[in-house]
Amino acid sequence: VFNLITGIYKASEGEIFLDGRKIDGLPPHRIASLGVSRTFQNLLLWRHMTVLEHVKMGHYSKIRYGLIGAFFGTPGRHREEAEIEEKAVRLLDRMGIRHLAEQVVLNLPYGAQRRVEMARALATEPRVLLLDEPTAGMNPEELVQIMEIIRRVHGEFGLSILLIEHRMKVVMELCERIQTLDFGAVIAEGSPEEIQNNPRVIDAYLGQERAV
User: Fold this and answer.
1) 163 DSSP 8-state letter
2) Are 97 and 51 in contact (CB under 8 A)?
3) Each residue of 42-59: pLDDT tens digit?
4) Measuring CA to CA, which residue among 42, 4, 26, 23 is closest to residue 133?
């Protein structure tokens, strides 16, 4: 689903809209420029780059100084580079990983790497953030921490978050509205309470015997 939304896959049918604008068929970089950013189930980080470099990379999607400024090192470029670093450091601070700014991601624990990827996505200043299995592989302590970060991001950044997640605790505690799929088909949509009590969801995810 996220690959369709972000333009990595082309839809064979149906249409995708963002704020009333049709976006399916647009290249990924155009969709990103319209305010859609994402993380991945399998971390996509450059292992030998620092945490700060990763987040600055997200900000580079908004640079204004262009090719001439980059080549000649104009004052405008230097000012904007300083602004980018300042924004990146502030974002790391909000994600609780400012102290790791100069660390290469290779040396970080898994939970911290997840935060780096989320910070990089937020650096593009999205209106819609797609989180693909953000708690995958996390231990209980990391799980609690990332859930709190997602809550804070939703509140502080004022953006919409779409979440793909298989841990029911995470889904029920974080999501305002849930859409449940079974073998790729939507079988239910509603509030956490409605989904939790939906017979089709119980049958698909818990089985009738466990539901009883």
Assistant:
1) E
2) yes
3) 888 998 999 999 999 998
4) 42
Global pTM value: 0.86
Question: What pLDDT score does 206 carry?
Answer: 64
d(CA 109, CA 6): 28
The DSSP 8-state label assigned to residue 37 in this structure reads: E
SS3 175: coil
Cβ atoms of residues 108 and 52 within 8 Å: no
In the block, residue with structure tokens 């089985």: 207
Element (H, E) at 117: helix 110-123
pLDDT at 209 over 60: no
Instruction: Tell me the residue ranges of DSSP E strands in 127-172.
Output: 128-132, 160-164
User: Are the C-beta atoms of 141 and 73 separated by less than 8 Å?
Assistant: no
Do residues 121 and 38 touch, judged by C-beta distance below 8 A? yes
Q: Which one, of 160, 194, 201, lies nearest residue 5 by Cα?
A: 160
CB count in 10 Å sphere of residue 137? 14
36, 126 contact by CB (below 8 A): yes
Contact 80, 108 (CB under 8 A): no
Rounded to whole angstroms, how far apart are CA atoms 66 and 57?
15
Strands 128-132 vs 160-164: parallel, antiparallel or unpaired: parallel
Distance from C-alpha of 113 to C-alpha of 44, rounded to nearest angstrom: 10
